[in-house]
Design brief:
This protein is α/β, with parallel strands linked by helices. Helix content is 38%, strand content 18%. The chain contains eleven helices and twelve strands. The chain has a twelve-stranded mixed β-sheet with strand order 3-4-2-1-5-12-11-6-7-10-8-9, with helices on both faces. The C terminus is likely disordered.
């Protein structure tokens, strides 16, 4: 019987002046990681060689022109560019942003063409990536355009999962952005991901309130009473185990999150502040709802320590393992649900 091929794990390097390359290379400096997957980094031999030298990382790699040429048991570098970009550690330069996007575009193209199985993205700077050809606030929005499905920003660890109703929008726009349709959509994406990607058969979801104390019966805003509560009741009556809205200020401190498989926060900081407080360095940003698997570490470019060899690769390593875990769970789920009637017939006949 032919041995199953290792997962082909694509990596976009993020901002070359940040810690993206460092955490990726440190992750695979440990040769045991090559037992789990075949890493394919989208950059260039010269760029990676310079990073290895500057950061004093001991790693050998295999340069290839295309992801299809990647060799198992080696760290593979797809040569996306021939230029030698100027690396200025700790600086937010236009060049740093340009090469981050070139790496990302090449990696996403390979993902769409099934040349890689999953994608792990190193951190980018949301300011220097902007151009006439790239006008997205971050990875999630770009991937939502390029890949099939509808995206949900989903922060995950082994014991905590937090998704966002709204992600990269201004706080002043949050309340008017949250509609019954949006809630139904995000809950559906989260529920499906928990079943398909994390193997949870009957997931329980908690929804956090928009206003302080979930509006205090309309005293501090009416959105929770008029939008959240009726929609939660409607979804629950339809069979979705969604509860709330819960007052966000005490929800995590009282460990209420432990009673649920996932939490859906109303806006970015409401979800990410407690998530990163409880799990920083071990958390993973997963883009749920798309037809392909993408994860990233839970930190940014960390310019203040870039180029100094001080970056901790723990979150990036977790992103690698999460991507593989989700890919395997999803593959198994899709296989089991492909033709349930046929499988029942086979089982009864056997």
């Amino acid at each position: 019987m032919k041995e199953k091929q290792k997962i082909k794990l694509g990596i976009s390097i993020g901002d070359i002046n940040g810690i993206g390359c460092e955490v990726a290379l440190k992750t695979f400096e440990d040769p045991r990681m090559l037992e789990f997957c075949t890493p394919i980094i989208f950059a260039s031999n010269k760029t990676i060689s310079q990073q290895l030298k500057d950061l004093e990382i001991n790693l050998k790699f295999n340069g290839v022109r295309d992801a299809e040429q990647a060799i198992e048991g080696k760290v593979n570098i797809v040569n996306v560019w021939k230029e030698v970009p100027k690396i200025e550690y700790g600086q937010a330069t236009k060049e740093g942003g340009d090469f981050a996007i070139r790496s990302l575009r090449a990696a996403v193209a390979a993902l769409k063409e099934n040349k890689i199985d999953v994608l792990v993205t190193a951190p980018i700077n949301k300011n220097n990536i902007q151009s006439e050809d790239f006008k997205f606030p971050g990875h999630t929005d770009f991937l939502a355009q390029e890949l099939e499905g509808e995206s949900l920003m989903f922060m995950v660890t082994n014991s905590l999962r937090v998704g966002l109703l709204t992600d990269h929008i201004a706080v002043k726009d949050v309340a008017k952005a949250i509609t019954p349709a949006l809630i139904r959509n995000k809950v559906a994406i989260m529920e499906k991901s928990l079943k398909m990607d994390f193997g949870i058969r009957r997931p329980k979801i908690a929804l956090l309130g928009i206003n302080p104390h979930s509006g205090d019966s309309g005293t501090i805003g009416e959105e929770d009473d008029k939008i959240l509560k009726p929609t939660i009741k409607e979804l629950f009556n339809q069979g979705t185990l969604v509860y709330g809205p819960y007052s966000a200020d005490s929800f995590f401190g009282s460990n209420s999150h432990q009673n649920f498989d996932a939490v859906l926060a109303a806006y970015h900081d409401q979800g990410l502040i407690p998530f990163k407080t409880l799990s920083f360095g071990k958390g993973v940003n997963y883009t749920a709802g798309l037809d392909k698997v993408r994860t990233s570490p839970d930190h940014g470019t960390a310019y203040e320590i870039a180029g100094k060899g001080k970056a901790d690769e723990s979150s990036f390593k977790e992103a690698v393992f999460t991507a593989m875990h989700v890919f395997n769970n999803r593959s198994e789920y899709l296989e089991l649900t492909k033709n349930p009637l046929q499988k029942q017939k086979i089982k009864r006949g056997g």
